[in-house]
Amino acid sequence: MQLSRDELIQAYRKMATIRAFEERLHDIIATGEIAGFTHLYCGQEAVAVGVCEHLAIEDKIVSTHRGHGHCLAKGCDVTGMMKEIWGSREGLCKGKGGSMHIADIDKGMLGANGIVGAGAPIAVGAAMSCKLDGEGRVAITFSGDGACNQGTTFEAMNMAVVTKAPCIFVFENNHYSEHTGFEYAVGTQKDIASRAEAFGMKVWRADGCDFFAVHDTMREILEYVRAGNGPAAVEFDTERFYGHFEGDPQNYRGEGELDRIRETRDCLKIFRQKVTEAGLLDEAVIDELNEAAEADVDAAVEASRAADRPTAEDVLTDVYVEY
Amino acid sequence: MAKMMYRDAVRLTIAEEMERDESVVVLGEDVVGGMGTDGGPEAIGGIWSTSTGLFDKFGANRVIDTPISESAIVGAAAGLALSGKRPVAELMFADFIGVSLDQIWNQIGKFRYMFGGKTRCPAVIRMAYGGGYNAAAQHSQCAHQILTGMAGLKVVMPSTPEDVRGLLRTALRGDDPVMFLEHKALYAVEGEVPDGDWTIPFAHARQVTSGEDVTVLATGLMVGIAEAAAEAAAEDGIGVDLIDLRTTSPLDEEAILDSVEVTGRLVIVDEAPPRCSLATDLAALVANKAFSSLKAPIEMVTAPHTPVPFASELEQAYLPSPDDVEAAVRKTLAYR
């Protein structure tokens, strides 16, 4: 199905915002201005946006430690997120969560997660909740090729099938679990989707660097799951431009590998090429969207630098609702 | 006033809360029991008979029988709680927290804090704990000493059917994650339970026996053990102020410190092994905040620092007994 001009613009702007957000973080973290562990999503934007563009606020997503892209794609505020990563009390989680634990329940974003593989069972619960409400809503769990080796992911897939929960397992295979290659760590040596297939799920596979492939595939999956067929899984082949964490020297990469994927597998470049060749958007519009995304991130960084820091009293708040 | 068993108090309370609030959802391994068998759903109705009949009454969407997948059970409870439901998940045996610890420790216990207070996580995780069934080291353990140490979780340990009613209502109506620890040796114990829709707030200890000579602190099955010791000591005119803590997090510090201020002597009874435990935590609390009231060293009656043994003789030796508690009471009184 053809996307409208407005839909194309919205999708690209989101991808460009994630890219600008991540590239800026990469630069700033190198200066030491931000503390803590940060895992950048750069390179995988087409997956987060291609998936989330289909979702309503009532649909839920559960994310990973590499969660900025999913959060932004689901509608979390750019400045609120940047302030959170800065550790400000004005951040989306008041500076209590940081990069790895950003959540915005009101947006249907049930949390990034510092524990690899922890998200899938949570998404199954959210999907049970959607099923109980009976309004055709779904829950999505994003997992990488690292998380696909965790027992929790296997438990979650089986439980989703058994309970017919409208849960979609989105596997983003970026070929690296931390610093270890897919060929070594995933015993099937083949793919992740076949594992989901073994649990009895209908499975899709697509190029995660092509926004249109992701978007079209998700449309099919959502039709299938919203129709009450139970869970489904999809594996997107994608690329991670930066290391496992910021500061990772990436000396496990092959020679020229990063240059090659930046050149041939960059989802923003692929999007630009497709829409300009098809005459859907012209180069100038894309450039403007990139500039707008940069401006949003500029504003978020400025606001984060100026934002209130938490105080020692804040340590004690929000442990419980009531004690 | 009705007489009912501890297990019936659990089931009845869950059923009533499911009736009252349609967001209450039950899940766990064999909470229905018999799914996918010739015997059919409800053939088991929960291995502790704490969920019998719920499936027939509320259906498969609200009473969810799960595979043996403790991580997925607690994780699903987390997801349900984050998306507006009130899950009551059963882990069967408290020993199984090990398999699901990440979801308890890193997930449900931390969501509210990590997410800046912008969410609630009203998940109740029920589990049967404790010794007395010759169930050996992997089916007899306590879990409160581990769970109490995790900030973000509330830990409840009812010792009577009445307390099950009042505390479980509070757990199911609150907005925090609650670990609800049911002692398996108490399930068949009967007790009077007041009628009506009343609750027991957390951090409100219950005075079981009153006395001015020694304070005794206990939870769960240990309350009855300590009560037997208090009765034996009373024959010699020794007054025991026995306090059932009921919840270990939050803790009724005031009740403990007020009592010690009067008695000046403290015996802590705990079914868990003694290192880094509830017993040592309570001892530290009193030593820190009521040191000047103490007339004798604090006594701790606990299990030894071993896994729970199997053979009856060994398990009897392992668990604190009324004699052990009475001896500790007399020891603290004899201190000069």
Question: What would your notes on this structure say?
Answer:
The complex is a heterodimer of chains A (323) and B (336). In chain A, the strands form 2 sheets. In chain A, strands 1-2-3-7-6 form a 5-stranded parallel β-sheet, with helices on both faces. Chain A has a two-stranded antiparallel sheet with strand order 4-5. Helix content of chain A is 46%, strand content 10%. Chain A contains 12 helices and 7 strands. In chain A, helix 1 packs across helix 2, helix 2 runs parallel beside helix 9 and helix 4 crosses helix 12. Chain A is an alpha/beta fold. With 336 residues, chain B is α/β, with parallel strands linked by helices. Helix content of chain B is 35%, strand content 20%. A 7-stranded mixed β-sheet of chain B has the order 3-2-4-5-7-6-12, with helices on both faces. In chain B, strands 9-11-10-13-14 form a 5-stranded mixed β-sheet, with helices on both faces. Chain B has a two-stranded antiparallel ribbon with strand order 1-8. In chain B, helix 10 links the parallel strand 13 and strand 14. Chain B is globular, with a radius of gyration of 20 Å. Chain B starts with a strand and ends with a helix. The relative contact order of chain B is 0.12. The model of chain B has no long low-confidence stretch (mean pLDDT 97). The chains are: A alpha/beta (323), B alpha/beta (336). Chains A and B meet through helix 5 and helix 6 of A and helix 3, helix 4 and helix 5 of B.
